[in-house]
Amino acid sequence: MRVPLSWLREYVQLPADLPALVERLSRAGLEVTAVHAYGVPLPPGLPAPQAPLVWERDKVLVARILNIAKHPDADKLKLVTVEYGADQPKTVVTGAPNIAVGESGQVVILGLRGCRYFSMDKEGRKTIATLEPRTLRGILNDAMCMSEFELGLSEDHEGIILLDPAEAPPPGTPAADLLGDVVLEIDVLPSMARCLGLVGLAREVAALTGLPLRLPVANYPTTSESVERHVRVSIADVQLCPRYIAAVIRNVRVGPSPYWLQHRLRLAGMRPINNIVDVTNYVMLEQGQPLHAFDYDVLLRRAGGETPHITIRPARPGETLLTLDGQKRELTADNLVIADSAGPIALAGVMGGQETEVTAQTRHILLEAATFDLVSIRKTARQFNLFSEASTRFSRGVSPAQVLPATQRALELFHRLAQGQVLAGLVDVFPQPPQVQVVHFTQRDICRLLGCSLPEGEVERILTALDFSLQPLPDGWRVEVPLTRLDIQNGAADLVEELARIYGYDRLPERLLPLELPPPQVQQDEDGEEKVRDLLVLHGLQEVITYSLSSPEAEARLHPKPNHAPATDYVRLLNPISPERSVLRRSLLPGLLAVVRHNLEHNDSLALFEIGLVYIPQPDSDLPQEQRRVALALWGRRYSPAWDDPPHSPAPQYDFFDLKGILEALAADLHLPDVQYQPTDSVPWLHPKRCARLVLRNSSLGAAGQIHPRVADQWQLPRTLLLAELDLEAILAGIPERFAYRPIPPFPAAKRDIAVVVPAELPAEHVLREIRTAGGSLLVRAELFDLYTGPGLPPGTKSLAFALTYQAPDHTLSDKEIAKAHEKIEGRLRHVLGAKIRGKDIA
User: Fold this and answer.
1) Is 103 annotated among the ligand-binding residues?
2) Where along the chain is Mg(2+) bound (predicted)?
């Protein structure tokens, strides 16, 4: 928000120390992000560079035109004689198109010889020049009537500045005293939306500085004719429109606004249009209440000559509106509209309709002032990408109490600047006026929340300056909250926060917390998730975070044949920002695959994981089921080359067993020793012969393996990419509450190998399970270390070799004990699996 200090100074006296004011505003929650100077120097100590052009006080002056004559040798030039506070008038040559021969009395800004001004060089670049005498068609010229461009006020150089003679200072006044200004750019937080009007900001300044506040008081005459005969208003839903005021102004003269008004709007970042529209914008910037003016004659014509009936309602199916920007808008039931009997005439709080806009031919206007539901306005503005000063204010919350003062202020300016005749009364529809909120609080509340008490006089001064009504009580205060303070929702705590904000947090003494810190709450799910994250990082993976929003097309590309992917329900966004972000994801893989594809060009190895939520629609609920999952991706070289590697030797690449090893290590770290890997061909995004489903106690944890070749091609990824997606909640649920830790045995272990021949289709996992069952407590480790399928074996079989480790916790095992345990394992493998022991049953 841009705040011209000359404008703010109308409502509150400003301290001389501008840097101190900027710091106090920022400390009070109104951060000053930039400071701009126009024609005047900035005081030292501000976080801003000096203005590139400072107007010389003796060379850039206010002047009054005495006469305008035709240049004798140039049709487009004029000779302008001005008085500027000197003993003798001065004649200036100008080609300004906005003055004419024979006119007089206009007030202009005169630049004298030696003044600096903005100009354009031969290459069209903006530069600063110094005014030197020169001859124009035979006439010496050593001064100039200046435009806004030359003074650095705007880019407008089509004509010279013409001030309102009735309000201009005497000739010879330095232009810096009239038009020079300093503009603050303030970042207004949503909780301080009341400061989106200069009156609200002035109240904050008055509270911070203790200086008096001067609020504008509207005063205007009205006709004897009542407005209620000329317009009717009804509200369909009071939750969407709590209050609506309509006023009618007749016989307005539409034209340019006086220069002072245009100047203020430009400094505040708005473009002047005409006096009617400019007044609505001016009052919005002053009061923080957006307004809109309709052409009343158009409303009368649309009503067939009957009294126009304005209705505030949601749009109906099929309705459209041609807005002021010339765009035809297709409306939905989510759009709140201002309508008459013929249909919508404006998007409530966002933009007016083109048919009812004020033009040069407008003679009678209807003024709208209202408050609307902030969520509705925010949705409509986002839907149509229409973000304006008005929608910004409505989307942050405008109090119904602001509507009446803003209406009265606008009516005063319409009468003053457009000579409008204001019809008596207002059509004020306010079905449910809010109740005044009353809060009782004491010094104990202040001490409890701030750690110290505040002087009673300072408490009363601050709250009174912020427009709260106070009544002292024996033990504290009874406070009535002004209706404009929509942010006061938490009683005494909010009032104490206001006191601390204005008093100054930096002035509060340091105190230790008066309360004991509460014991930390154990968050099993969050702690478990963090542990999984840490373990994966420990094993060399990097975490990525992708959008929770995806698209059905991206999810379908996880299927080898996207066009034949099964129909799937999604949680869909009502107003997606793009087709690629139109649904809530059902899998982490689309986002992870996109990250892999992006990084392939920059890396020869990737080891990534993501932990996040997926959203599964539920047929019996409006809310989806949220599942936490973890996804992994491996690709490329297993490790970076070492200095002693043979030159040009092929780098080992990640394979399925690297992925399986990471998952096994993760399971071991989480005390999940019973995870089984079962072959599967039912996971569409994995290679049917190079994948496995992870199972824990008959519960599926997910799947892991090599990407399906067709899926890899659809995503433009290498076919050697390894993927896993697991149900994190199922993993965490399987972690036992207590773990059995055993001391490291002091007695040596004994190692034996066993090689068995089994049917080729029998999974090694089944063999391992039988080995562990038969080995009992003496078998502490069993690992597969070799697979052989070559010559020397019966057809349809394979040889599996396992390394077995035997150890007792209380003594050294004898050869006899080891042999007995080993023979028991061999016997079970023969009996249960029909296996043959190599070296005994088969060569």
Assistant:
1) no
2) 487, 494, 497-498
Q: What is the CA radius of gyration of the chain?
A: 40
Residue that has been written with the tokens 């400072």 in this structure:
54
Q: Could you please state the CATH topology (level 3) that the domain comprising 750-837 is classified under.
A: Alpha-Beta Plaits (3.30.70)
Burial class (CB in 10 A: 0-12, 13-18, 19+), 746: exposed
Sign of CA dihedral 465, 470, 472, 473: negative
Residue 306, number of CB atoms within 10 A of its CB: 10
- Amino acid of residue 526: E
- Options 3.30.390.50, 2.60.40.10, 3.40.250.10, 3.50.40.10; CATH of 222-429: 3.50.40.10
Q: Which among 790, 792, 823, 789 is positioned nearest to 806, based on CA atoms?
A: 823
Closest CA to 178 of 161, 195, 191: 161
CATH class assigned to 2-52+182-190+199-209: alpha beta
φ and ψ at 693, to 5 degrees? -100, 135
User: Which pLDDT does position 40 carry in this prediction?
Assistant: 92
Task: Tell me if 355 is assigned to a ligand binding site.
Answer: no
Contacts of 591 (CB under 8 A, 6+ apart): 544, 546, 547, 550, 585, 610
Contact in structure between 722 and 635 (CB atoms under 8 Å): yes
Give the integer Cα–Cα distance in Å for 756 and 766. Answer: 13
Phi, then psi, of 613 in degrees rounded to 5: -95, 145
Please check if 498 is assigned to a binding site.
yes
Please, what is the Cα angle at 67 between 61 and 68, to 5 degrees?
100
Contacts with 410 (C-beta within 8 Å, 6 or more apart), sequence order = 279, 280, 283, 291, 367, 369
- Report the distance separating Cα 566 and Cα 563, nearest Å: 9
Predicted TM-score of the model (pTM): 0.70
Q: Which CATH fold topology does 524-640+651-733 show?
A: BirA Bifunctional Protein; domain 2 (3.30.930)
Burial of 19 (0-12, 13-18, 19+ CB in 10 A): middle
**Would you say residue 514 has pLDDT above 70?**
no
Cβ burial 331-353 (10 Å sphere, 16+ → b, else e): bbeebbbbbbeebbbbbbbbbbb
Cα separation, 494 vs 487, whole angstroms = 8
Among 60, 259, 55, 291, smallest CA distance to 167 is for 259
Q: 525 CB contacts (<8 Å, ≥6 apart)?
A: 628, 729, 732
- Integer Cα distance of 188 and 191 in angstroms: 8
The reply to whether 158 sits in an annotated binding site is: no
Tens digits of per-residue pLDDT, 603-653? Answer: 889 999 999 999 999 988 889 999 999 999 999 988 777 777 777 777 789
Helices 198-209 and 456-465 meet at what angle, rounded to 10? 160
Helix (H) or strand (E) holding 786: strand 779-788
Q: How far is CA 273 from the centre of its chain?
A: 30
